[in-house]
Amino acid sequence: xxxxxxxYDVLSALQEVMxxxxxxxxxxxxxxxxxxxxxxxxxxxxxxLGQAAHSFKGSSxxxxxxxxxxxxxxxxxxxxxxxxxxxxxxxxxIDNEFAEVRRLYDDERQRFAY
Amino acid sequence: xxxxxxxxxxxVLIADDNMTDRMLLSSIVRRQGHRVLTASDGQEAVDVFxxxxxxxxxxxxxxxxxDGFEAARQIKELAGESLVPIIFLTSLTEEDALVRCLEAGxxxxxxxxxxxxxxxxxxxxxxxxxxxxxxxxxxxDQITRHHGYLLNEQRVAKAVFDQVAHSGCLSSPNIRYMQSxxxxxxxxLLLAAFTPxxxxxxxxxxxxxxxxxxAVGAMPLAEVFYxxxxxGYGLAxxxxxxxxxxxxxLPVDMFCCATLLNLNFQRRVVEVWNGGMPDGYLYRSExxxxxxxxxxxxxxxxxxxxxxxxxxxxxxxxxGDRLFLLSDGVIETxxxxxxxxxxxxxxRVFELNRDPTRxxxxxxxxxxxxxxxxxxxxxxxxxxxxEPGELEPPATVYSDSGASSPLxxxxxxxxRGDTLKRFNPLPYLLxxxxxxxxxxxxxxxxxxxLSELYSNALEHGVLGLDSTxxxxxxxxxxxxxQRSTRLNHLKDGYVRLHFMVQPEGRGGRLTIDVEDSxxxxxxxxxxxxxxxxxxxxxxxxxxxxxxxxxxxxxxxGRSASVEFSWGALA
Amino acid sequence: MAVNADYSAxxxxxxxxxxxxxxxxxxxxxxxxxxxxDGSPQAYKINLKETTYLDSSALGxxxxxxxxxxxxxxxxxxxxxxxxxxxxxxxxxxDKLFEIE
Lengths: 114, 570, 101
Known about the structure:
The structure holds three protein chains of three kinds.
Chain A: H1 8-18, H2 22-42, H3 46-62, H4 66-78, H5 87-110
Chain B: E1 11-15, H1 19-31, E2 35-39, H2 42-52, E3 56-60, H3 68-79, E4 86-90, H4 94-103, E5 108-111, H5 116-165, E6 175-178, E7 188-194, E8 200-207, H6 211-231, H7 235-249, E9 256-264, E10 269-275, E11 280-283, E12 290-293, E13 313-316, E14 322-326, H8 328-331, H9 342-352, H10 359-369, E15 380-384, E16 409-416, H11 419-422, H12 426-433, H13 443-462, H14 473-489, E17 494-504, E18 507-516, H15 523-527, H16 531-534, H17 539-547, E19 550-553, E20 559-566
Parallel strand pairs in B: 1-2, 1-3, 3-4, 4-5
Antiparallel strand pairs in B: 6-15, 7-8, 8-9, 9-10, 10-13, 11-12, 11-14, 14-15, 16-17, 17-18, 18-20, 19-20
Helix pairs in contact in B: 2-3, 5-6, 6-7, 9-10, 13-17
Chain C: E1 2-7, E2 13-22, H1 27-35, E3 43-47, E4 51-54, H2 56-68, E5 76-79, H3 83-91, E6 99-100
Helix pairs in contact in C: 1-2
């Protein structure tokens, strides 16, 4: 699995599919992801944590955020094996990665600002 | 990259709790030419499905409220007989995904990140499956409908046929039979009727084919059988007519195998014709011997009128003797090991039988014990030889008003040379005599006497056959062989019948004179024979005396005169 | 069941071979064998060597062939019948219509 932040080939394929709705997709992903991150932080039990990570993994991979998806996958696997000592660390790394890709998506979004 | 539109736009339900994925997938599917419905959890997916009935469902495996697997189960249940393909959307690991999806009733799965080309291919494949299922269900319903029509047609055909066949005498006490109610649609036919002389005609037939084509030939055949038997025609004439009719109306590849019997209780003989049926049996109750009645002829409806052979075999009968006829369904009954019941088992039943009155039951029991698969074409009939007068044929129903009746007339009919070969005057004479209302209550006796006089004149008179030949079974066969040969070669000779009807008081009198060109015989000698000396022969004269009011013969035996009288009609 | 047909060397007699069950399912194949053939054979030979079973619909088909071949003037021979097949032909007295070897 490649560790690039954003796969631009995926983005161009998305652009072709979504056509005029491409900016809307980007916006939806960004606001949706914020919600997911909050879920990750708020999750109290391992199962809820795993589900949130799973869902975030899905959408990040669809959107070409390869490394982010990879980290979510790690978290998803990790919560299956308690005790969950270094979870905090993994969640932070996800936060950071998202911050990074968010910048890139904003740049991408700028190309379509009316 | 351009997408090919689907051959037929579908309505697709996309259920995923992730808004981004939902939006993306909806666009991909819409781009492929389909209409899209969405749901964001499992319960909503089930509700939307129930209301809008999409043709295809894309279902995320992990969803809140109701997970994907449970939602899939409920959707499949709602779909019922129709196939609604469900494609699971999953980013579980491969093996995991496949097993869980299939167990939940899913038809396929699609991994994230979504690949448009793969998705398009899967949608196309799933839709092909869906349409195939729909076609199968439609054809099944069509078949069920048509089957219903067919059953109804058969019901109607059977009802019509039962009307045609009802006038038979299968319920006579000397007949036992076994036949499936739907034998008709296997081409199996069983008919029985009294002759005007108090005898009986029986027919067991088997038409080629199944269903309505097999049944349709049975109706004209039954009409000929009953119509001609009632008029007093003999087997030969009835066979000729049945063969000609079937030859004319049936297609070339259809025919009717049949065995016909003509029982004459007074003369104690049975005439047999078998064309294509399995062996029938004549069971002699005294000796326990069973004589096979073999197929000697082609089935009915094959040969032209010119080539048809109506030659019958004649056997003597004693009271208690039985005739067995069976269709090939009996022999061909097969058990689980695919063994056939066969002729050997049947003959063994005859051999083991100790009580002739239970012969029919013994055969039925043997068939049952064989554990054969029960078939619609197993038909069996047993006809017992009884004393004349033991059976009471139903009184003929006359269709006229009975008002006028010809009471003063006379008629002479002379049959000469080779007219005697093929022309049987009896049915015509019977019809004539039926006009005499006063005689109707004695019609059985009248016809028997007339038939006896005529055959005596023909056989003993013109053909010169020696009646003492009929003393035993072998002589019997010889007698009928000779009868057939001599009749074929006949050139000269005559039989003359004279009828005179005169009123007498408030009733009347019929006088019948029969004269032949033969050598004659000594009536005194014949009458004075003891019963033992007579054997099977010569009973004719005593019988004629018994049944008529007055009977006398000329000294040279070449002419006979009988009288019947009647009083005032009630 | 399989049906095939070939002409004799002098092209006067057509032999039709019947393999397997000769029953109502054979109808079309049997008809094609004698209807879709070039020329008109003067005689027919039906080879029943590999015929395992024969029922009344087969008898009907033989009658159709006989009718096609001229009815009473037709020359149709049935050859190589097994004992079982011979029995069926005997009961129906088809030896009065066909030459049976």
